[in-house]
């Protein structure tokens, strides 16, 4: 992700100087050379070389400390999700950012996707009437590498976190209770690592809207991210187009998709560009932060509740999960 964000920054007309930092200095030099940027000798140097803002796309375990380092340096920071590897550390980190009066935007890029933006606008305008049901699908065509799985935090934390964030962002409501389950019946690596390859969560919002979210690492048909929003006046779908890897067996159905997108980088390429553009505006003080640390922590709270529900096989009210 770091190279993707760096390329988007390099193309942006407001960015005049770009410094790449990585614990693997050779990797930093390679990316810098490709983008006509500079490579820092160390990560610490990137915070002290006249930098005006930082974009953090490192391993999850390093996010919290780098966010705190940026806050102490008074630098606006954009950080890939999640804020930290566990909820308590994420909460403490965001509290430190707030105490320092610093700026932190979290990379939950689906907020910047054209389809999700249009869906949210319709819901907020009341065009669907009373929202009663939400269904979302998140499916990767292949499992990620074992090294990633072991540090990702699990499917609720890593994959479904987007859905949990979108539910709050689109509806303007809070999650009241969750019930989640999961399976490791896919490739053996999941059971070996104690991870799930497929998961589902049923969420009750505080206005009693029901939401069902599903995710899998093993969708042979291709990469698929969709959401259906159902109201008593209308129902809409997000992510349903000619690329959607979904085949109807009805006799008069349209032809199956011939060109599904390979993965999230392609599916959300424009959203990644838009969130970086937004961050630059936030850093200049020209835009209200569209996804601050508190918003990201609220999504993590839902993920934590789902993990607890799946492990303990019971509904979990959000009042059990500590927050701000």
TrEMBL record:
Pfam families: GFO_IDH_MocA, GFO_IDH_MocA_C. SUPFAM superfamilies: Glyceraldehyde-3-phosphate dehydrogenase-like, C-terminal domain (SSF55347), NAD(P)-binding Rossmann-fold domains (SSF51735). It comes from the Bacteria. Belongs to the Gfo/Idh/MocA family. Residues 2-107 form the Gfo/Idh/MocA-like oxidoreductase N-terminal domain. Keywords: Oxidoreductase. This is Oxidoreductase domain protein.
